[in-house]
Amino acid sequence: MFLLALTVAASLAGAPPQETNAPTVVLRADHVHTGTGAVHSPGMVKVRAGRIVDVGASLNTDGASVLELKGHLSAGMVALGDQTLLGEQGVDTTRFVLGEAETRLGFDPRQPAMQRLAQEGVTTVVLTPPSHSLVAGRGLIAKTGTGRVLANGQAMHVAFDAEMFVDRADPMEGQDFGGGFFFFFGPNGAVNPNGYKSSYSGAAEVLEENVQDPNSPVSKIAGGEVTAWLRSSDRAESARAIAFAKRHKVQGTLEAGPRIGDLAAEVKASGLGVALTMFRETDPHFATQSALALTRAGVPYGFCLSAKEQPVASLRMAAALCRRAGLTADQSWRALTSGAAQAVGLEKQVGALRQGLDADLVLWDGQPGELTSRVLQVWVDGQKVSAR
Amino acid sequence: MRFLVKRSPFLLAVGLASSISTGWAQEANGSHDWEGSLVAAAPSETPFALQDGNEEEGKPKEANAQKDDSKDDSKDDDEKKSKAKKKDKDKDEEKPEPLSLAAPQGPVLYLKGERVIVRPGKEIENGQVIVRDGRIMAVGTDLEAPEGARVLEGAVICAGFMDSFSTLGLDRASLTTSGSEPSARTVDALDFFGPDHDRQNALKAGVLVAESHIAMNADFGGTGVLLRTGWAHDPEKRLLTDESAMWSRLERSGNVVTRVEEVDSLISKLESGGDYLKSWRTYETKLAEWEKEIAELEEELEKDFKKAKKDREKDIEKAKEKGKEHKEKRHKEPKPPRKPRFDPDKEILGRVIEGKMPLVVVATRAAVLRNLLEATKPFPSLRLVIAGGDQALHVAPELAARKIPVMVWPSEPLSSSSVPSDTRGSLELAGDLARAGIPVVIGSGFSGSSAALPLYASLAVGYGLPEEHALAAITTRPAAAFGMQNELGQVRRGRRAELLILDGDPLAVGTQVQFAISGGEVVLEPQK
Amino acid sequence: MKLLSHSWTLAACVGALAWTGPLMAQQKQAIKAGTVITMTGEPIENGVILMDGTRITAVGKADEVEIPWDAEVTEAPNMVAMPGFVEAHSTDGTDRTNETIDVAPFFDVQDSINPVDFFFENCLRYGVTTVNIQQGNNTVVAAMGAVVKPFGHTVDLQMVYPQSGIKMSISPKSGKSRATQAATLRQAFHDLRAHLEELVEEKKVGNDRARREALAQGRDYEGEDAKGRAMTGKGWIVEGLETVPRVEIDEKMAPLLKVVEGKMRVFMYCGSPAEVHTAIEIAKENGFLETMTFVLGSGCHKAADAIAAAKVPVILSSNLVHIETDPLTEEETRTFEAQVFQDKGVTFALTSNNSGLESLWYQAALAVGQGLSREDALAAVTTVPAQLLGLSDRVGALKPGADANVVLYDGDPLSMRSQVQHVFIDGQQVYDRANDPRLKHLLEGEQPKGTQADPDGAREESAEDEGSEDEDESKKDD
Amino acid sequence: MTRTHTFAFALALSIGLATARPASAQEDQANNDGKVYASVLHTSAGETLKDVMVTFADGKITAIAPGSALPDGYAEGLVLTAGLIDLSARVTRSENAVEQTNEVESRLSVANSLDLFDRTWDRLARSGVTTVLATPPDRNVVGGLSAVLKTQGSKDMAQRQLNARNFLRGAMGDAPSSGNRPAWGSPNSIYNRRPTTRMGVEWEWRRAFFDAAAAPEYPELEFPGADVFRAVLAGNITLYVQAFTVIDIRTAVFLKEEMKREGFGDIQMWIDGGSEAWKDAQLLKRSNTGVVLSPFPSAGYSPERSFQAWRVAKDLDEMGIPFTLSAHGRTEPGRTLADQAGRAMRGGLSFEKALAAVTSAPAAVLGLEDRLGTVEVGKDADFVLWSGQPFELTSRIIGVWVDGRQVQ
C-alpha cells in the first residue's frame, strides 16, 4: 500500500496553541529536578500557555493558580528512533530513494501506544520511517500526550546499514499484469527497475549522485539545510556514515550500534548526535562502554525505543545499566532527557525544566533515575495528560 | 561455556504482558483486566502479611542450625516507600554467645555497617556481624571485634542475593536438551572454564548464590544445584547442595489434550517413585523377618542334628535291607524375599514426593495450574513450587492457602509462541501475586542474566511490588523455596556467611557492592 | 584342485619350518647411517644398528660396534636413522569407528581392523611402525583396542599387543548431554557391582541352604572349595567373589571387571576441561585411576592442575594450539597446550589422529616450532607413547632387545624438505620410497604393473573453487 | 510487512564490566621508528646477510648495518625477512561487498565495502602478512575493482589504501552463476539474472569486451563501466580472473588471445586459484599469464592431494610461469601463508623461490616493487622476524612490523 496515498487527519499545528491571555499555573513539589544540574527542594515551576515561564525554589504566585504536588517533579523523557509506533505501516519498496516521503502524513498521533508512552513518563518521541531503501524520507518528532507534531523535527532518513539491501526489488509482487507473468528487464537483464542496489559501494554511489543533484530532496541535507538521520549498525558502517557527514557538512543524528564508543572522537569531530540502539544482544558490555566513551567525549546521545511490549521500562533499564557501569546519576538521567533532545537538535524546546522550554513535566513518587520510582502524573505542553 | 542467546529478540518483561496499561487503567477505574479478577483492585486497601513461606519445617541441617520457630509475620503498613518502624513480635535472641574455643579454620571477619538488614523488614542501626568457619557467629549492636579478625566496614550489610533460576555454568546442549532423565545430575554438567563474564558480573552485582539446572524442556529435567558464584572454580566449595530441586516442565506441547496428560503423567511418575521406595522398605522389613526365622530354624536343626543323624543311619540300613535306594528327607524352608531392581529414576522421584527435595513445575496457563493443584492435593508432603505462573492469579487463593511460592522471571514465558499474547505476565504480576498473599520469588530466567537480578527486583517495585517483598524475593523467599531457610537469606546467627557490604540501599540503581563474603571468606573487594 | 592346494600348503609349512632355522640365523643385518637418533641418549654420528631376526642386538658408533661377517649391511651414509614413530591413539584402520550401543566393552577391535586399509600404507610412508587402534569418541564405553604393526596381510600377523585397553568417553555422545553421559557411565560400573553382588549372594544363599538341608537330613556337610578368585582393585571390592568361578560372570561385563581390578588400561576421551574432574572422580570411585590415560580434546589445558594432581598421563589433541576468542573483548588467546602440560609435569604424547595434517613427524615439528625442545617433541611421538602402551622395552627406541623397527630419513626428520626413504619392521624392510608404486604413478605418471590407465587421465577432485574450499579434515567428526 | 524495530531491549543484561577501551582509531605516529637485530637477513633481493641491524624511521627503512654485534637482550639465531604479501586474502567479503544487481559491474571498487574493524586484519598481520590485495567476492561474472592495503593502519579507508596497480576482478566457470535463478518463475529478485551456465558466463565476458571495444564507433553499445574494460584492453588495469580447473584456465587464456587476435588489445592477466595449472602449463607460458596459487590442500589420507598438489609451485617455477602463493586469509597454525610456502618447499621448490613467491613477486604484480617486497634502504619498514629457518615447521613468527610499527 503506498505510504504516500494515506491521508491522515493529523493535527499538524507546528507550535503549541497560543492563547493570548492563557492562565498561569504554578506547580509546587517536594523536589524539582531541573535537569540542568540544580534540584530545588521544595521547588516551583511557573507554566503559561504550554511553556515554562520560570523555575526556582520559590516564585511569586500572585495571579496564578498553585498546584500542590507530593513527590519529585522532572522533565519528560525523550525517546529516539522508534519503529513500534508506526503500527502496520507498509515498508515502501517502490524505490531505492524516497526523498519526498513524509512519515508525518502516515502517522496517527492519537493511537493508544502514544498514550501509554505518556503515562510512563515519555513526553517526546522521535520516529524514523521503517525502510528497506537507501533514503526513506522524512521522519517526525511528536509529543506523546497531546499528539502534537513538531514542525521542525523532520530529519531525512539515510541508511548506511545492510537493512537497505533487500532481495525483492520488484514492486509488482503479487500484482497480476493480466495474461500471466511478464517482466521488465533492467538495463542489463536484471529485473530491477527500481534501481535497488545490493552492495555498500553501489549504495554509496547512488547516495553521492542524489546529494549532488540539486533537484533531489536529498541534496538539502548537504550543508545542514535539512537535518539527517544516518542509520548504521556496525563500526564500519558508522565510520562510513561519519565520513559522509563530514564530506557534505551534514547535521543531525547518527543511529549507531553498541560498538560506537570506539569512534567517539570521530563522532565528536563530525558534530552529529547519537541514537544508541542500546541493547540488541543480551550482553550490554559494549553498549555501556560506548555510553561512557560518548559521555567522556562530550557527544550528546539518547537511547532508541526497542522492546515492543515494554518500551519505557527498557529505556529506564538502559539508563540504569549505564549508571552501574560508571555513569553518574545526572549523566544517565541526561541521556533520557536533555542529551537525547540535543542529539536531535531540540535542546531549545524539550528535555529540561528551563525557562522557555515546553512544559513537559512528570511527577514521580521517588528519584526520577531510580527504577523503584513510579510515574504519578504527566503534563505535556502544559496540559495534564494522565494521573495515577 | 557462556550461553549467548541469539534467538528471537528477548523482550523485557517481569512476565511482561502487553497489558501494561492495566497498571494505569486499573487504578483509574478499579477493574482489573484479568477476566473476572479475584483480586481487589486498589492495592493500598488490601492489608497483606509478609509471610515467610514455609519457614518452619525446613530441611534438617547439620548440628548447630538453630531451630527457628519464631514466626515473624510483621504487619507491613504499605503506603508506598515509607520505612515506618514495624512492631516486631519475635524475641530478640541476638545475645552474643561465648565464642567456641577451638581455633578457627578459615578467616575470622568482623563486619560493621550503618544499617544491618537482618531480613527484609527488620534492620539494626550501626550493627556488627562476626563471621567464623563459614558461619555467622553473632549479630548485634555492641559486639567487639575478636582479636585477629579482619575488619570490614560499609554503609549497608545484607544477605547475599540469590538467583532462583539462572543458567550459570551450563552449556547450551545441557540447557535445552529434552532427553534427560530424573536421575541426571546438573553437577556433572557444570562448566566454568569457558568465558566467565556472566558469572563475574553476577558476583559484582551481589548475586552470591545461583540455582542452575539442566534440561529446561524435559518432563523431568534432573536435580539442580545451588552454587556459590564466588567459588565457581573450586569443585567442592562451589556447591551448597547438588540436589536443590527436581525441575519439571509442563505445556511442552501446543495442544490442549496433551497438556492435560502431561499433569497426569507427572503425578503418576511421582507416585511410582513413592511406591518404589515403599517396595524397598517392605523388602527390608521382610528380609529382616526372614533372617530371624532362618536363624531360629538353624538353631533348631543344630539342636537335633545328632538325632537326625541316627535316624538317617537307621533309614539307610532299612533301605539297604529292602534293596531300595535311600531317599533323603525333603527339606522345606521359607524362600528369601525378592530384592526389587535398582532404578535410579524412581528412587529420586520417590524422594521428591516424600518432600526430601522441592519440585519446581514450570507452567503458565490457569487451566494447567488448576489441574496441577488439584492433582497434588493428595500429597501433602510434596513441596511444590510454581515457576512462570503468568496466569497464577486465577488460582491465587489456593496458592496462598497452600503457601506455594511462585517464581517470576523477567523474560517472555518459555513457550512464547504457544502462549496467547494476552496471558503473558505483566510487570505488575509480581505485585499482584504479593497482594494475593502468594510468596513471590524473582529469578533471572531462561534468557535472563543473573547480574541484573537486583535491577529486576527494583523494576518490580516500580510496578507495584512493595519494597520488602522485592528484597525478600531475591533473599529469603528463594532460600525457603529450596529448603535452605535455616541456612541462607538472613543475617542471623548460625546461618551460612553469604553476606554483602553495599554502599547504598540494595534496590537503588547506583548501589555498588563494596565487599562480598561467601563461604565465610571475602570473595570480592574493591581493587586497590 | 582343492586337494592339491591342501597338500601344497602343508608342504610349504613343513618346508618353511625346515628353513626357519638357518633362515632365522641367516637374517643378521646391520644398518650404517650418517646419524642415528637412538632416543636413549645423544644422537650418534655415523652409527651402526645391528639386528638379528626381529630384535636389535647392538647400537653404537661405527668403530665401536663389530659387524658380524654374515650380516647383510645397508649403507646409508647421508641418512638419519631413528626408531619408528608410535601412534598412541588412532581410530583409523577399522571400518566403522563406533558402535551405536552405549556400553560395549565386550567387543574387540581386532574383528574390524582391515589390514589393507589405506591408513596402514600411509603409516609406512610417514615412518609410523606401531599403532594403538582404539574406537572413536562417540560412545560411553567402547570396544577393547589393540596395538598393531602397519604391515602384514592378516590381523594376527600385525598384532603386537591384543586387548591393549578399553576406550571410554566422558564427553557426551551424540544425543546425550554431559549429565546423562556421566549418569550412563556411572550406571555401567553400578550394574557390574550389582551383578557381582547378586552372584555372591546367590552362591551364599545356595550354600547356606545346602548346609541346612544337610543338617535336616543328618548328613555331614562338606562345602565346595572356592573355584573363583578373590576380587582385588583399588576402587571397590565385592567380598566373597572367590566363591564364584570367573566363568560364571556375564561375559558382557567381564572386561569391565578387569578395568576395576586395574588389569585393563582405559583410554578416556575428554573433550572439555569441565569434564576432567568428573572423569577423575569416576575413575577414583571405580579403581582405574592408575591405569587411565586421557585422550584430550582441544582446550583441556585449563584443567591441567587437576590432571597433574591425579597423575594421569594424557594424549593431546592433534590441534596443538588452542585458539579461543573472548566473545566480549574479541581478544584471541592462543595457548600451546603441550607446554602447559610439560610445565605441570604431566606425561603427554602427541597424536595425528584425524588431524589430516600429515603424520606424527608433522606434529613433532609443529611442537618444536611452538617452543618444545627437540628431544621432548621426538619423545612425545616415540618413547612416551610406547610407555603409555606398556611397550617401552619393545618399541619407541633403538636399544638392544627392542623390536628392529628402524626408519631412515634423507635429512632432519623434522624438516619440511626431508622424506622417509626406508622403513624396517621386525628387521624386515617393509617400505622403500624409491619403488613406492603409488608415488611413482602420481609423480612420474608410471602405470603400475597389471593396472590399466584411467581413461581420461588422473582427473583429480582437488579442483576447489571458492565455494567448496577444502575444509580442514579435522572437521571430520568421528 | 512492518519492519518492527525488533531490536528488543534485552532486560536480561549483565552489568557492563569496565575493561580498557580499545585503542582509538588514530594510532599515535610517534613510535613507528626503531631498530631490529637478526642473525640472518634474507632480503628477497637476492642477498642473505649475517648479523644485521636494520634501523627504520617514519615507517621507512633508513639503514641496514650488516656485521653488527648481537646487542644484549636479543636472542641468537633469529631470521628476518620482508613482510609477506597475499594477493588473494579474501578478507571481510560479506554478501554486500559486490554489486549483484547487474552481472557485469566494473565501476565500483570493493574499497567502500571492507570492514577495517574486523579482527581478521590483526590475525593476518600476526601470521606475517603485511599487505593484501582485496577483491570483491565472486558472485558476479565481473565483480568490480580491487583495493590494495596494509593489514594494519588507520581505520579510514582513504588513508589506508595504497595507490597500486588496479585490478578488475572476475570469475570463470560456474562460480558466478551458482546464486542465479532462471529469469522465468518468480520474477521478483535481483538473482533472476543470466547466466546460469559456464557458457553464459563466458558470453557475458565476451559481450562486455566486444561492446567496450566497439563503443567508440557504435555509441549505442556504450554501457556504464565500458571505460574500465577499455583500460583493461589497453593494459593499464590487470584482469584478475578466478579459475581453478584446467577448463576455466583455458577459457580465460583463450579470451585473452581472442582479444589480441581481434586487435582490441593485449590484456595483462593473472589467474587466481590455478590448482590445475600444471596440466596445461604451456598455454600459460605462451600467453605470459601469471598464477596466484590457492592454498595447498592438507595432506589428509590421499597422497594425490599432497604429493602431487604440493608440486605445482615447483612445476610452474621450472616452466618459468610467474606465480605467487596465497592462503585465502586463513590464519590457523598449519594453514597460514608461511605454511603454504613451507608446503611448496616440501613439494620441491627452493627456499629462495618460495620466499620470492610471497614477497618480491607479489610486490611486482601490485606495481609496488619500489616500496614493498624486499628489505632495502628506502623501502617500507614491513618485516617478519622468525625464531629459526623461515617456512620450516620448527620455527615460528616472533615479531611482525607494518610501516615500522610492531603488531601486538
Report on this model:
The complex is a heterotetramer of chains A (388), B (528), C (478) and D (408). With 388 residues, chain A is α/β, with parallel strands linked by helices. Helix content of chain A is 22%, strand content 23%. Chain A has helices at 112-119, 200-212, 235-248, 264-270, 285-297, 311-325, 329-336, 338-343; strands at residues 24-33, 39-40, 43-48, 51-56, 64-75, 77-82, 122-127, 135-138, 140-143, 156-159, 228-231, 252-256, 273-276, 301-303, 361-364, 375-380, 383-387. Chain A starts with 23 loop residues before the first strand and ends with a strand. By secondary structure, chain B is of the alpha/beta class. Helices cover 27% and strands 17% of the residues of chain B. Chain B has 12 helices and 16 strands. The longest helix of chain B is centred in the middle third of the chain and has 48 residues, at 256-303. Chain B is elongated, with a radius of gyration of 29 Å. Mean pLDDT of chain C is 84; it is low at 1-25 and 456-478. Chain C has helices spanning 2-26, 118-125, 155-158, 178-217, 254-260, 273-285, 304-309, 337-343, 360-369, 374-379, 383-388, 437-444, and strands at residues 28-36, 44-52, 55-61, 72-83, 85-90, 128-133, 141-148, 159-169, 266-270, 292-296, 314-315, 321-325, 332-336, 348-349, 406-409, 420-425, 428-432. Chain C folds into 2 domains: 27-84 and 396-473, Urease, subunit C, domain 1 (Roll); 86-394, TIM Barrel, CATH 3.20.20.140. Chain C is of the alpha/beta class. Chain D folds into 2 domains: 33-83 and 373-408, Urease, subunit C, domain 1; 84-372, Metal-dependent hydrolases (TIM Barrel, Alpha-Beta Barrel). In chain D, helix 3 (198-214) crosses helix 4 and helix 9 runs antiparallel to helix 10 (351-358). The N and C termini of chain D lie far apart (47 Å). Chains in contact: A-B, A-D, B-C, B-D, C-D. Chains A and D meet through helix 2, helix 3, helix 4, helix 5 and helix 6 of A and loops of D.
Estimated radius of gyration of chain B: 29 Å
What is the β-strand count of chain B?
16
Major beta sheet summary of chain C:
8 strands, mixed
The CATH superfamily of the domain at 21-47 and 161-273 and 343-488 in chain B is Metal-dependent hydrolases
Order of helices and strands of chain B: HEEEEEHHEEEEHHHEHEHEHEHHHEEE
- The general outline of chain B is elongated
Arithmetic mean of pLDDT of chain C: 84
- At the fourth CATH level, what is the homologous superfamily of the largest domain in chain C? Metal-dependent hydrolases
Helix fraction of chain B? 25-40%
CATH class of the domain at 21-47 and 161-273 and 343-488 in chain B: Alpha Beta
In terms of quaternary structure, the protein is: heterotetramer
Supply the helix-strand structural class of chain C. Answer: alpha/beta
Distance between the termini of chain C: 46 Å
Provide the low-confidence segments of chain B as ranges.
Answer: 1-96, 412-425
Report the biggest beta sheet of chain B as strand number plus sense, adding barrel if it closes.
Answer: 7 strands, mixed
Q: How many helices of chain B?
A: 12
Strand order across the largest sheet of chain C: 5-6-7-8-9-10-11-14
Low-confidence stretches of chain C: 1-25, 456-478
